[in-house]
Amino acid sequence: MDIKKLVGGNIKTLRENKLLKQSVVAKALNLSDQSLSLIENGRTNVDLEKLHRIADYFGVSLAELCSPGMQVSATVEKHEMSAKLLKVLELFTQTVNRSFTDYELLSHTQKIIDQQETLFRLIAEGREQRVN
């Protein structure tokens, strides 16, 4: 396999698994969007200094970045991230549901208070009518 395509594919996999846009990563690495695109697609040589910056950015070793096995571990990382995102979404949904329930309870309580105030007003008006 062509080393440029291997490394580029690993970089793209790392970026996508972290749900990052190419422009964000390019800016962080002080590269143009086009340069990063060429690197990810294996269409340009990457000097050692850039490879070190990329590896540091993604928190992997240079050996891992150049390893064919990187794609397997990145896929596992992607599934772990997906599971974490699903858990966050589930907690968010529970919070929203709980908040909605609290809102319904508050609304229902307010209706009861309004009804009690109306009842007390009618009772008070009835007393006034009896006195007159």
List its salient traits.
132 residues; mainly alpha; 434 Repressor (Amino-terminal Domain); 2 domains; 6 helices; 81% helix; 0% strand; rod-shaped
Relative strand content = under 5%
Q: How many strands appear in the DSSP assignment? A: 0
Any idea what the shape is?
rod-shaped
How do the SSEs run, as a string of H and E? HHHHHH
Average pLDDT, rounded to a whole number, is 80
Give the number of domains: 2
What share of residues is helical?
over 70%
Largest β sheet strand count, sense and barrel closure: none
- Would you identify the CATH H-level superfamily of the largest domain? lambda repressor-like DNA-binding domains
Query: Low-confidence segments, ≥5 residues, pLDDT <50?
Result: none
Distance between the termini: 103 Å
Q: What would you note in describing this structure?
A:
This protein has 132 residues and is mainly alpha-helical. Helix content is 81%, strand content 0%. The protein folds into 2 domains: 1-68, lambda repressor-like DNA-binding domains (434 Repressor (Amino-terminal Domain), Orthogonal Bundle); 86-132. The longest helix has 62 residues, at 70-131. The mean pLDDT is 80.
